[in-house]
Amino acid sequence: MMSRSQPPAGNGARSRRERPVKHSLAYGSSGGVSVSGARTAISLIFSGVLRQRPNIRVILSHGGGALPILVSRIAMVSQTPLVSPRPDGGADEVLEEVRRPYFDLALSATPLTLNALLQITSLSHILFGTDYPFAAQSAIEGNTAGFDKLMDSLPPAQRKMVEYENAAELFLRLKAFLERT
């Protein structure tokens, strides 16, 4: 049996079993999701789906993942002739279309996420989210505590928007239920 402190035999290549693990469940459930959410939004924008279907409503989970941070770079790349498909309107179209989706704060209710989202969209497109039943209870409780703290920093009318009013505009049966209660 070879220990990690010994150099590998032969040409220096390690077998798959001997290679150190370079990812973990934490990456898969946070980093991977962050990138895939951004990739989904980019695909919808670059393929023209959002422009061609103006009535479609999209909710990007986890605060849109990496999208709020990458959107200016994505807009710049949209003008590159080698990128295909790309939005006809270039960077302006990217910046306009990225305002259309809704973004939930599941496992991302932090001041950094909210501030990044407010750079690309309005508060009317931000929703409460928990990631229940997929996230661990401790993660949900931590996110909910972070959400409450984040909402305490907003005026009551804005807090209500994020807590339930924005969702009610998306889900008409929820809106009807809330109006009855």
- Determine the CATH topology: TIM Barrel
* Full CATH superfamily name: Metal-dependent hydrolases
- Write down the overall mean pLDDT: 85
Structural domains: how many? 1
Low-confidence stretches: 1-8, 19-28
Radius of gyration: 21 Å
Overall morphology? globular
Structural class: mainly alpha
Main beta-sheet annotation: 3 strands, parallel
End-to-end Cα distance: 68 Å
- Name the strands of the widest sheet in spatial order: 1-2-3
CATH architectural arrangement: Alpha-Beta Barrel
Order of H and E elements: HHEHHEHEHHH
CATH class: Alpha Beta
Oligomeric description of these chains: single chain
Strand content: under 5%
What level of helicity do the residues show?
Answer: 40-55%
Number of strands: 3
